[in-house]
Structures are given as C-alpha cells and as structure tokens.
Design brief:
The protein has four domains: 208 residues, no CATH class; 204 residues, 3-Layer(bba) Sandwich (FAD/NAD(P)-binding domain), CATH 3.50.50; 121 residues, FAD/NAD(P)-binding domain (3-Layer(bba) Sandwich); 112 residues, Enolase-like, domain 1 (2-Layer Sandwich). The strands form five sheets. A five-stranded mixed β-barrel has the order 1-2-3-4-5. The two termini are 45 Å apart. It is an alpha/beta fold. The radius of gyration is 34 Å and the shape is globular. Strand 8, helix 20 and strand 9 form a beta-alpha-beta unit.
Length: 720
C-alpha cells in the first residue's frame, strides 16, 4: 500500500475518532435541531448564502465520512430552507458526499480487494458493467439498506463514478423528499420512527422491487416481440416437451435428463450416435495413444531392467484395435440404450422451421415434423481445414476422417506432416512417431500448447522431440504442391521458405462450430463463431437453447455434458426457476506423454488478468511411486492467493496427470484449500501423494517462524 493511501486512511480514521471524541454527535440530534430551528432560521434570513454553503459543506463531510447524522441533517434542511430549496441542497450534498465515500473506498481499498478476490470480483464486475446501474437504483429506493454501506461497497467494484453519481442522485431523490418534507413540519416530529412508519417503509419496499417487476415486464415484452412474427404458427398443443438436435455429449446428456424427469423427448442425429468424442476424438485418440505408449515402452524396456525390443506389429491390427475400442464403448451411446431410457431416437437431418417446430429429413427418405415446447441445439463442431493453395490436390485427413483412412493402410505413414501444435496435433504427432512415422509438426505460433505456461510448452516440446517428432514452431504453412507421386508442404520461417515432403498430412489446426443447415439463419438465431446464448444458454428465443461445442466457449466433452444439464433443466423448468451456467472450475487435459492437465488459472493467465498469486511447485522426480515406475518426470504447480491456501489454479505435468487433477477439481469446486489436502491420508505408494507433497511444500513456505522460535525455547527449557 503506497503512502498516499496510508495517509488517506489515517486521515479518515482521525476524522471519525475526532467526531466521537469531541462528542460532535450531540449536534446531530432531533432535540438539538428543534431547539435551534428559530436561531438557524434567523441566520438564514440574514445570510442565506453563508448558511446554505456551510450546511452543504457539513452535509457532504458527514456523508463522505459515513458518520451518523445524515437523516437529522435532511430534516434540518427542510426545517431551515423549506421544501424546494431544502430538497435541492440536500439532494446534491448527499450525492456528492456519497460519491466522495465511493471514491475514498476505491482509492484506499479497491485495488487490494480486486487482487485478493480476483476471480470473484471479476464476476461481480461483469454484473456491475451489465446491470450495475439498475441494481444501484433499486437499492437507493429502499431505505432499509444503509446508504453508507452501499457507497463503500460500490466503491470496491469497477462501477464508473459518473454512473454511481447520477443513479444515486435520481435513486435517493424520493427518500430525500420524504425527509425534507417532514423537516418542514419539524415541530410535529418526536422521533425518526414517526417519519419511517411501517406503511411508508412498505411503500419504499414496493418502490424498490418495482424495477425488478419492471424488468420482468420488459423481458416479457421482449419475448413477445421476438415471437411476434411466429404467433400465427404457434401450436395449441405440442408433440414433445423437448427436441434435441445432435447426439454427441451435449445432446445425449440433454436427452437423458429430459427422459429422467419423464419429459417426452426426441433426439435427432444425422450420422453416428456418440458424436465426435466416441467416433473421431476422445475414444479413438486415446486408444492409439495406448498402443503407441506400449511400443515406446518396448523400445525402452531397459528402463525396467529388461532388454530393449523393437516392437513388431501390423498397422492394420493397431487401427483395427482402435475401431474395436469404439465398438466396445458404442453401446453406452447407442439408440438401443437411449430408447430403453425413454428417449425417442431418430436418424435424420433436423431443421428448425419456427421456434416450436422441427422438420426432420429421415435417413430412409421420409420426412417427419414435430412440434415441441423447447429445442436444444447440440450439433458440435467440425475440424478446420486451412485454405492452403493446393491442399485438395495433395489430400489430407482430419480427426474426422483419419481413423477410416488410416485403417486402409498396410503400414504406418512413412512421412507424416501434422499441421497444428495444439492438444490434438501434439497427441497425434507423438503417437504416430512412436509407431514409426517420421513426423514433422508445423505450428505457426512461437510454441506448442500456446495456452499453457512456457515451462509446460518446453516440457511438451522436449518430450515430443525425444520421440523423434520434428517440431517446427514459428513456421507458417504457405501452400501444398503435388508433382507426380511427390507431395510437398511449403512453409515459411524468418522470411525463408522450406519444403517438406510427406506421404500423409493431418490437419489439426482447430475446430469450428457446426452452424449451417439447421435453420438457425432462417429463424434469425444470431451466431458468431458459435450460437449466441445468454448465461442460461438461451438463444434469442427463450425456448431454444444451445449446449456443447456449438455454444462454446469450451470444446471439451465434459463441458458439453456440464452445459447440457443447464440447457435441459432451464428448457424444462425455466418458467419457474432458471440456472446460470457455472464455469468457475473447468478442468482440461492433453494426453501426450507425460500428460498435461490443468484447472483454474495458470501463471500466464494470472499475469494477463492482473491477479496476484503465489506459486508452489513439487517435482515428481522426487515421488517414490514415480521413481519405482521409471516415470519420475514432471511437476505439480499450484497457484494460491498470496498468504493463503486458497487454490487459484493447478497445472500438472506427469504420468496420469489427468487423473491426479481430479482432487484439485473437487477442492476448488467446494472451496477446500491446500491445508485440507495436506490433512488427507493418501495411499502409499501412489502417484496421488504428489498432491499431498505439494501441499506440504506450501505449508513449509508458510511456517509460523515466530511461534516455532518460542516452541524451541519451550523445548529447551523442558530439557533443562
């Protein structure tokens, strides 16, 4: 805290102490005002400007210092100046004083509060930016809420000073008028309770909740407006409670929840049940990662006291295993299972023709039209193919086509180019390198896994390079060329072009939401990179929701399932109660070897957001189980609030990092700190002990040295 802040705080404290020490409160009582009314009246008649100026300055000071007496001074304003002048003087004095208190709180404590409660304050600030004026106005209308509390608390947020001033000026006007008017009848007032009668308080409360009621009315009018052009086609009754478009993670969970609460729900999927995760993403990639890791371990069997061996395998058999794994998991997401759960599953292409009607072009050539109270759009995302000249000529695969295409190959591709240095590109590059491909990974950014901390990217880079991946960062793909049987990718680095020959190319540069072909543009649902939704996952139409990759902002299977709960519950029960999506604790993992897993903030994000943090780190090379498994590499890094054990974020690099992360996800979700993790028994010897040991590192760094010094003296005394 700088000197100016310290001086301000000390000055404010001194002024408040002086107020009570000198018993200045005796001048702010009803009796004193009544006894002095005649004298003040004479003085005002003789020197009106002096009296108004003095009164104004004292009122501002009392309000700015949050001292008791503002209510009495408001009465005095009415008694001395009358209703009109009194209202003008008191209104502006109270607002200026409130604004000074607001600014003092912001200057003295605002920055430290923002840092200390960074993530929580960030959410509050978002709400303040969006609807802060509305809620401040509501609070100003209700005299049950002490105004000085409002002044100080609002100063700790990011509310604009001008917004605070004018909303306070307008919001306090009615209450001020009541007190000033009462002051004009000062002789009839025996106590402040006489002014704020139960009836008057009730009226203020009604005024206070009026803006909320008005907001609901406005929402209803907006809803009516958006549906206006469709009212002539609104069904009198509905075939379904919910229609879900897309049978990936978001769609499956939405349909499951609807069926579980006995709603009549139809799930429409044009291709394969299970969506991208089962058929093209999570499941097949993890299957091939496992095969590739086993091949790697065979080559490095000496790490376990065995002879190194060159793995002999059929690439077709490896790819067949991938498809066998998909087939083994497929029943979990099958039509048969969901039909048994009470979900009607239709195979076809769904198109929304109006807010309550979905037209389905069935895969068998027939057509079906369903009316429904609510719709959940869960159409997922598709791989992005960069617009490189010549890319169609040389051919490429994406995560959607890789598994079928490579299953036809007799051998692993001899020369493989992977475009993209994100999680998908890195996982595939390492896996195929371990299976024998000569892999070149091309990334335009300065490093792979760009969203992670630099040390994490460096760790991942070394791991991929040790498996033979030629990682080219800061290389921009320019074009593809095909000459006879030769395929070439031309890249540029530092102004120099480089040619990379390849046999197969994987495009893994990102994924984009599937937005076209579902009727969204026809009914006017706004989209950008994703379907535009509010905090309840509602689109512009309150009965149409979106969940999963098509809704963003994350592209994880587990967040799609998480969003699906909110979409389904809000769609079915939103008339009575709606739930805002909670994105406070979102875990993620990249399944390279060693794995990279994270929840909450990393250092890069904390610095970018200006959030203060402490770092505690534990090297897994010190962990007994990791040493026994010859997996002693990586680390656990925890970010905490300075001086406290509250967890802001965790990054784990190491074997089974994705599994180890679960303990921190639970801890952050339920507000448990490192002390709780340290006090939890962890089985020995397990990798999970790393979580306990990093908590121990934090505890050692925060030892109560003074207490320990006294304890040493105590024990020395006990021995004497």
């Amino acid at each position: 805290m700088n000197k100016s802040k310290i001086i301000l705080i000390l000055a404010l404290i001194a002024a408040i102490i002086a107020f009570f020490a000198l018993d200045l409160g005796r001048f702010f009582t009803l009796d004193f005002i009544k006894q002095s009314q005649a004298r003040f009246g004479e003085l005002y008649a003789a020197k009106p400007a002096l009296v108004i100026g003095s009164f104004f300055a004292i009122y501002v000071a009392v309000t700015a210092l949050s001292l008791p007496g503002a209510a009495i001074m408001t009465l005095a304003g009415g008694a001395i100046f009358g209703l009109v002048v009194g209202l003008i003087v008191v209104s502006f004095a109270s607002t200026i004083g409130a604004t000074l208190a607001f600014l003092a709180a912001r200057f003295a404590l605002g920055e430290s509060v923002q840092k200390k409660f960074g993530s929580r304050m960030a959410e509050i600030n978002k709400g303040i930016e969006k609807e802060g004026a509305f809620y401040l106005f509501t609070l100003r209308l209700v005299p049950l809420v002490p105004f000085f509390v409002i002044n100080l608390l609002m100063g700790l947020t990011k509310m604009k000073t001008w917004t605070f001033f004018w909303v306070s000026q307008v919001g306090m006007l009615l209450g001020t008028a009541v007190f000033v008017n009462a002051g004009t009848q000062l002789a009839k007032i025996d106590s402040l309770k006489g002014i704020l009668s139960p009836g008057l308080i009730g009226s203020f409360v009604l005024l206070g909740i009026f803006p909320i009621i008005a907001k609901k009315i406005i929402e209803a009018l907006k809803k009516r407006k958006v549906y206006a052009k469709w009212n002539h086609v609104r069904p009198k009754s509905f075939d379904r409670n919910m229609v879900v478009i897309g049978a990936g993670a978001g769609g499956l969970v939405s349909a499951y929840i609807a069926a579980a609460v006995k709603a009549k729900v139809t799930l429409v999927e044009s291709h394969k049940m299970g969506g991208d995760c089962l058929n093209y993403g999570c499941v097949p990639s993890k299957a091939i990662i496992k095969s590739a890791k086993l091949a790697h371990q065979m080559r490095h069997a000496s790490n376990y006291g065995l002879n190194n061996a060159q793995p002999a395998f059929s690439f077709k058999a490896v790819m067949q295993r991938v498809h066998d794994v998909i087939a083994a998991i497929e029943p979990h997401d099958s039509i048969e299972r969901y039909t048994g759960l009470g979900v009607e599953c239709l195979q076809g292409y769904a198109k929304i023709v109006n807010p309550w009607t979905v037209e389905i072009a069935m895969n068998d050539g027939s057509k079906q039209v369903l009316t429904t109270r609510s719709i959940v759009i869960a159409t997922g995302a598709r791989p992005v193919v960069p617009p490189l000249p010549g890319i169609e000529d040389v051919g490429y695969v994406t995560s959607d086509t890789l598994w079928e295409t490579f299953a036809q190959l007799d051998t692993v591709p001899p020369r493989l180019v992977v475009l993209g240095g994100g999680p998908i590109g890195s996982e595939l590059a390492q896996s195929f390198a371990r299976l024998g491909s000569n892999v070149t990974q091309v990334e335009m950014a300065p490093r792979i896994l760009i969203r992670e901390d630099e040390e994490v990217s460096e760790h991942a880079l070394k791991s991929l390079q040790s498996d033979g991946v030629n990682v080219l960062c800061n290389h921009k793909a320019l074009r593809c060329e095909a000459t006879g049987s030769s395929k070439v990718l031309v890249v540029e680095h530092a102004g120099v072009e480089k040619r990379i020959e390849f046999d197969q190319m994987i495009c893994a540069v990102g994924r984009v939401a599937r937005l076209k072909g579902f009727g969204l543009e026809d009914i006017g649902v706004p989209t950008s990179r994703t379907v535009d939704t509010n905090e309840y996952l509602e689109t512009i139409y309150p009965n149409i929701f979106a969940a999963g990759d098509v809704a963003g902002p994350y592209q994880f299977t587990h967040t799609a399932a998480h969003q699906a709960w909110y979409a389904a519950v809000n769609a079915l029960f939103g008339t009575f109660k709606k739930f805002k999506v909670d994105y406070s604790v979102i875990p993620a993992a990249t399944f390279i070897d060693p794995e990279v897993a994270r929840v909450g903030l990393n250092e890069t994000e904390a610095k970018a957001q200006g959030i203060a943090y402490e770092v505690t780190k534990y090297g897994i090379d010190d962990l007994d189980r990791a040493i026994a498994d010859s997996e002693a590499h990586g680390f656990v890094k925890v970010l905490t609030v300075p001086g406290k054990d509250k967890i802001l974020g965790v990054t784990i690099v190491g074997v089974h990092a994705g599994d180890l992360l679960a303990e921190y996800v639970l801890a952050m979700k339920h507000g448990l700190g490192l002390n709780k993790i340290l006090g939890t028994i962890h089985t020995y010897p397990t990798l999970a002990e790393a979580n306990k040991y990093v908590a121990g590192e934090w505890k050692r760094a925060h030892q109560p040295h003074k207490v320990l010094a006294w304890l040493k003296k105590f024990h020395d005394w006990r021995r004497s």
